[in-house]
Amino acid sequence: MMTMIAACLAVGLIAGFLAGLLGVGGGLVIVPALLAVFHLAGILPEHQQHLALGTSLATIMFTGIASVRAHHAKGAVRWDIVRQITPGIIAGTFIGAQIAGLISTRGLQWIFVVFAYVVAAQMLLDLKPKPSRQLPARSGMLSVGGVIGVLSSWVGIGGGSLSVPFLSACNVPVKTAIGTSSAIGVPIALAGAAGYIASGWGIASLPNYSLGYVYIPALLGIVLASFPMAKVGAAVAHRLPVPTLKKCFAALLIILASKMLWSLW
């Protein structure tokens, strides 16, 4: 147990920093790392992916709050956007988590692999949508929030990989898009964690100290490290250009996704 918590602390340091720096929530690192930890801990394979996703979303609740506070202090959060998109986010994420409970571990891993490769390609090639339009009306924001919520619940992220490009395409400055994305990630994490707790509730074969599909020891280990590091990442985001760090993160994603892909074959 102590070895697992130590591993989760190390994961939390990296995930927290990335959450504050890039507005990506850290889940793209947390999920494959937890899969490795759960495998070593002997958790049943059919529960590993669901536990990794639920636990990842639960950690983002805490990481996101720290990141939001830091970005808000810099004036980089558009709270009007957060208010408009949050209802769709909550509905989409909760429903997505319920659907995920019906998808096999292998199916969820394929979704994660494809998503990780797409995000890595976007970062490596520095693909940015042209800022050619304004934010949609309230109904459009609800729909966008629903889509972001569903996809985020299936890959265990705070939605930054989707919301930052969307906001940038709508002429929101990049640093403001990152700060606003960190705020959007909090309701995603809340609704997603609640959904995974509900979908995993009462399953007898889950490990001890699980709350549905949220594994409490891993949650605590990651949060202890990621909460303070999110503040550090947010501070760096407002001081330094991040293209090089994005490329390093993309390389890490490719390695993690390729390892998961190899295991699927």
From TrEMBL:
Compartment(s): Cell membrane; Membrane
Record's bilayer topology term: Multi-pass membrane protein
Membrane-crossing segments per the record: 51-69, 81-103, 109-127, 139-157, 177-198, 210-230
One GO CC annotation: plasma membrane
Ligase found in the keyword field: no
One Pfam family this sequence matches: TauE
Protein keywords: Cell membrane, Membrane, Transmembrane, Transmembrane helix
InterPro entries attached to this UniProt entry: TM_pro_TauE-like (IPR002781)
Major localization class: membrane
Assigned protein family: Belongs to the 4-toluene sulfonate uptake permease (TSUP) (TC 2.A.102) family.
Name of the protein in its database record: Probable membrane transporter protein
